[in-house]
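Reminder to self: C-alpha cells first, then the designed residues, so the page reads top to bottom the way the pipeline ran.
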C-alpha cells in the first residue's frame, strides 16, 4: 500500500494523498472490535497530523483495493512552510475541518 507506519498507535512521519484506489480509516484501540471512521479515495489526504508533530497515529489506514499514494515527509513539509507560510493557513483549515467532522460523528459530545 502506501507505507508501513499507518497503524494506530505507531508514530508517523508524514501525510499521504491517494493517487489511485480506496482506503478505510479504522479505529480499534481500546475496543473489542474495529470501527470504520471513513472511506477515502482518489485525491484525499490522510495522516496530516504527522506533518505537525511526532504524535502516534490515531487510527489505522488500510487499503480496500489496490492503492497508490504520494507521501510527503514532515521535514520536507516544514521546510516548504518556511518558504510558503500561506500553506500553514490552508493546513489549519483542513485540520479544523477534520476535527469538526469527527465531532459531528461523535454526536457533538
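Designed residues (109 positions):
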Amino acid at each position: 500500500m502506501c507505507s508501513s507506519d499507518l497503524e494506530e498507535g505507531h508514530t508517523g512521519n508524514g501525510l499521504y494523498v491517494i493517487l489511485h484506489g480506496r482506503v478505510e480509516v479504522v479505529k480499534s484501540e481500546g475496543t473489542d472490535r474495529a470501527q470504520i471512521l471513513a472511506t477515502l479515495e482518489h485525491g484525499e489526504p490522510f495522516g496530516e497530523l504527522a506533518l505537525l508533530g511526532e504524535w502516534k497515529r490515531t487510527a489505522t489506514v488500510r487499503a480496500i483495493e489496490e492503492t497508490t499514494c504520494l507521501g510527503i515527509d514532515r521535514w520536507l513539509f516544514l521546510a516548504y512552510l518556511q518558504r510558503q507560510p500561506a500553506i500553514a493557513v490552508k493546513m489549519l483549515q483542513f485540520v479544523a475541518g477534520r476535527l469538526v467532522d469527527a465531532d459531528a460523528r461523535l454526536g457533538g459530545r
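The chain has a mean pLDDT of 87.
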